[in-house]
Amino acid sequence: SSGINAEYGVVATVNLMITERTFIATKGLFHDFQPVVYAVILSQAYGGLLIGLVVKYADNILKVFATSVSIILSSLVGIFYFAELSFTLNFGVGLVLVLTSTVLYSAYPAKKKAE
Question: Would you tell me how many other CB atoms lie within 10 Å of the CB of residue 65?
Answer without folding.
Answer: 19
